[in-house]
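Annotated sample (chain length 187).
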Amino acid sequence: MVFYFKARPEAGDYTIFMGLDKHENEELIRYGFPEDIWFHVDKMSSAHVYLRLNKGQQIDDITEGVLEDCAQLVKANSIQGNKVNNVDVVYTPWYNLKKTASMDVGQVGFHNPKMVRTVRVEKRINEIVNRLNKTKVERKPDLRAEREAVNASERAERKVQLREKEPLAGVTVEISNAYGSKYLAIV
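Output written by the structure step:
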């Protein structure tokens, strides 16, 4: 099961989601989207919380309010982190998550540690957690099918873009082979 939440209304149409357990987290890691931002309590066990940005947005586009929603949700879903004040929550783009065969279920590393950001959560704010929990919806998505559909759509979009850039018939173009040799061809 995946739990879906709505970020604060004034922030826009953002979806926040998290897996039921560490096995569900594996699926979320495997089939994430480039627009997904991953959140976790640093150095403690916690839920893996994701924020799905809109297409074309980057990590710098996250507003303070949405960042606070995600950080509060991940803190509230950490057995240890929920009990203490001043916890650090790390967040990074999904594509920066690194998973190797030697890692435990639910465990991740990072391809580039410099891409990981940290936000300090001083204390749990029940008003935020309660607001998010009121929007909570539980679903059993086919994460693989969703990812494959996005991949197919992106491939189709790239084909259209390539067709628009194709040279006109009868034009001479330079072609390189895998060994670096260059040839002129009339197309």
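Annotation: The first helix runs from residue 22 to 30.
Annotation: Residues 25 and 168 are 49 Å apart (CA to CA).
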